[in-house]
Amino acid sequence: MSCLLHGPFYYKYEGFMKATPQKRELPFLRQKKRERRSDNMAEGNKIATSLILVFMLSLLIFASIAESRILGAKSTPECDTVVGVESGDTCFDIAQKFQLTTDFFNSINPNIDCHELFVGQWVCVDGTA
After folding, report:
1. Which of 27, 94, 98, 104 lies deepest, with the highest CB count within 10 Å?
2. What is the pTM of this model?
3. Tell me: the pLDDT tens digits for 91-125?
4. 3-state DSSP of 34-49
5. Cβ–Cβ under 8 Å, residues 127 and 108
6. Across the strands, what pairs with 78?
7. What is the DSSP string of 80-120?
């Protein structure tokens, strides 16, 4: 098999050796190609960095929302003193007897239905909400 070489580069095409002319570039053109390649790589790195940043911020926002829902839940009130409901007592009467505001009384007794009090029911009169 014979082929003509017009420089050190040749390629094989369908079983035949074909000669390709050697490309000679000026040094400043080679430098420009390298710069373009590095610019393309830098642009790709900027896009990847931006996507990672967006992803991380999304995770942070998601975690903050989830955490705020968890922390936003009302805490369980702590009760230090309880008394039993007597005949004729109302929530307002008990709150007045122990010098509590109705809002504070309701906050330390979240499960009590003031319309359905019964004799002997325990209600909290001192604690933290």
Report:
1. 94
2. 0.44
3. 999 999 999 999 999 999 998 999 999 999 999 99
4. HHHHHHHHHHHHHHHH
5. yes
6. 128
7. EEEEE--TT--HHHHHHHTT--HHHHHHH-TT--GGG--TT
